[in-house]
Write a structure and sequence with these properties.
Length: 364
């Protein structure tokens, strides 16, 4: 059996360090807003080449606090890709604003800058560019449009820790970025965790207060804030894992390179790595018109698969109030109908990767 994903090879390498991290926090007896969180924030800001990092409870909250931090809310519109995980749209909804969907480029799965401008109205306040599957959107093009219309650009970087665009790190490509450290992400905690990364000092201060009950000073509340903080245990675990992230991403990359070279089934479309950057392959997304058959074929051979994501947001029950009919976003709908995520994880053996390649190439 080849799982779709597993942490096992990573966790084996750091087991002793993770246990020591637990021991240190446990013995210290300080669990929220302490030294581990501050140290991780500094290390992760440095890793992203950004000035500030604020640890929060999860990736959804990271995006929500950025929007609230910029004063985006009721009556405002925020542009989001039509083919993202629902959290991107939920952050906009929770802030009180309305998500406005823009289709992706099919080849890269990231938002198509050429389709953004026609969706901008007087109500538009920001664009959320999702660095989907581990690859950056075409940020220079997006930022150009945003500048022209006075909009904020926010990265949803939940799937792209360590990825680059024109030599610059994801997380430092726009006004602010939201990261998730959900266990399955390339940099994952042992529970829920997230962070906001930015160079904007004012936003950083506001996000820090918003995530801590709106408090900038103990029992002094300037906003009606949230309770969404990165706890000491998760921060300590993340510090151990961050030190290994580049190496683990390189391991994923090796598998992806083989897939790109050796999968040669004409029924299958492989993902494109854009010239402008590096891909960290959070997800290796292939497409096949007979996706469900291919999935069944692979599963029967003991190969785990997944689909990101089977129903586009505008067709989800949760967003029926937007009253967007099927057929409105044909590219997102096509991706949902044909995308298949195949196994890719650090520590995947040559033999395992070879079996995945062989099975896909055998599908007729
Ligand atoms: C995982 C993810 C999120 C949300 O992160 P959580 O930590 O699960 O809240 C947001 N956007 C994208 C694209 C994601 O993949």
């Amino acid at each position: 059996m080849i799982p779709f994903s597993t942490f096992e090879p990573m966790h084996k390498e750091v087991a002793a360090e993770m246990q020591a991290a637990f021991q240190k926090v446990f013995e210290k007896g300080w669990f929220i807003q302490g030294e581990e969180c501050s140290a991780f924030e500094k290390e992760y800001a440095d890793y992203c080449n950004a000035k500030y990092c604020i640890g929060v409870g999860n990736g959804l909250d990271a995006l929500l606090l950025i929007l609230r931090g910029y004063g985006i809310g009721k009556g405002d519109e925020v542009i989001v890709p039509s083919n993202t995980f629902i959290a991107t749209a939920l952050a906009v909804t929770y802030a009180g604003a309305t998500p406005v969907f823009v289709e992706p480029r099919l080849r890269s799965y990231t938002i198509d800058p050429e389709l953004i401008e026609e969706k901008i109205t007087e109500r538009t306040k920001a664009i959320i560019a999702v660095q989907l599957y581990g690859q950056a959107s075409d940020m220079d093009e997006i930022c150009k449009i945003a500048k022209k219309h006075g909009l904020k650009v926010i990265e949803d970087a939940a799937q792209a820790h360590g990825s680059t665009y024109k030599g610059r790190k994801v997380g430092s490509l726009a006004d602010a970025a939201g990261f998730s450290f959900y266990p399955g992400k390339n940099l994952g905690a042992l529970g829920d965790a997230g962070a906001v990364v930015t160079d904007d000092e004012e936003l950083a201060k506001k996000v820090r207060a918003l995530g801590n009950y709106g408090s900038d000073y103990k029992y002094h509340h300037i906003y009606q804030g949230h309770n969404t903080r990165l706890d000491e245990l998760q921060a300590a675990f993340l510090r151990v894992k961050l030190a290994n992230l580049d190496r683990w991403n390189a391991g994923r990359h090796q598998v992806a390179e083989r897939y790109l070279k050796e999968i040669s089934n004409p029924l299958v479309t492989l993902p494109t790595v854009e010239e402008y950057g590096t891909h960290v392959f959070h997800i290796f997304a292939i497409r096949c018109d007979r996706r469900d058959e291919l999935e069944k074929f692979l599963n029967e051979k003991g190969i785990g698969t997944n689909c990101h994501y089977p129903i586009p947001i505008h067709m989800q029950e949760a967003y029926k109030d937007l009253q967007i009919p099927q057929g409105t976003y044909p590219i997102a709908e096509q991706i949902s109908a044909t995308e298949l995520s195949i196994p890719l994880y650090y520590g995947m053996t040559d033999e395992e990767a070879g079996r995945v390649i062989k099975a896909i190439n055998e599908f007729r």
